[in-house]
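Subject: Sanity check before I submit

Could someone independently write out the structure tokens for this chain? I want to compare against mine line by line before I put it in a report. The sequence has 334 residues.
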Amino acid sequence: MNIREDLEKWEEEYLSPFAARSKNSAGRLRQEEPCDIRPVFQRDRDRILHSKAFRRLKDKTQVFLSPMGDHYRTRLTHTLEVSQNARTIARALRLNEELVEAIALGHDLGHTPFGHAGERALNRVCPYGFSHAEQSVRTVDFLEKDGQGLNLTFEVRDGIRNHQTEGHPMTLEGCVVRLSDKIAYIHHDMDDAIRAGILKESDVPTEITQVIGATTGERLDHFIHDIVSASSGQNRILMSEPVQEAMDRMRQFMFERVYTNPRAKGEEGKAELLMEMLYDYYLHHIDDLPEDFLALMDRGEPRERVVCDYVGSMTDRFALARYEDLYVPRTWRY
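---
Independent answer below. Compare away.
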């Protein structure tokens, strides 16, 4: 009895003609024997879920640095919300839900501590640049499992690499995650900003609320229904024109009122300086890197890239602890 083959047959019979089929995957970087229970995308999802990089997301900033409240989003809760939005859309459109979930769970594995502030700092100091989407692919290809990587399928790696606005995923499932990411952060970043007292629901312009709703919950529901309705029966993922315009205006509103707000972002300059100092320290004290990162240099990876890998993989808490150990004088005891 081969359960995987039964599931692949179910995909053939049930999924949309535009959906990605597990058995038609373009394959992995290294060939493997197939699992007798799990199709390839389910197997990828499980590998991501059990990775160290995924666990570290729980202590990485989403928008607010080191928030005092218990209910602000982290990079992990953001990832889970992206996954849930994407799975809802994929199921309604009869797309491959396991491929969608694998891409969604993996899309931010390469994110730095302190959110986009950390990303900006590493991009500035590393001669090879830094993009969290590319770093997420590098994480699953090279950094996980002591340099072996997770050996994910081409479709999952493509969706991770192309999840940002400028990306062009090769599958509809990747397109669903790309749009779900935007929906998620616009939705939950506004919710967190309201929780922090930076915004009120009444601050949202009426030309937006009249189209997509007056509360964060209404807007999320409207986005998802609109995508399902506009994309049904089509070989592309899209929104209706009025909802797309409302989302673009909402994103602009968030940049004006939250993403560049000194109350929300006032500490980011300190975070960027901290990241630059950690990068500089390890660049000049290369032997202080963990063995698995030193092994990357033995394989020919440049030291600047490996230092960037290490500092970028840290959690907020670990980066702060390392900075304190290296640069903050300790109380002398006798």
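---
OP: Matches mine. For the report I'm noting this point. The chain has a mean pLDDT of 93.
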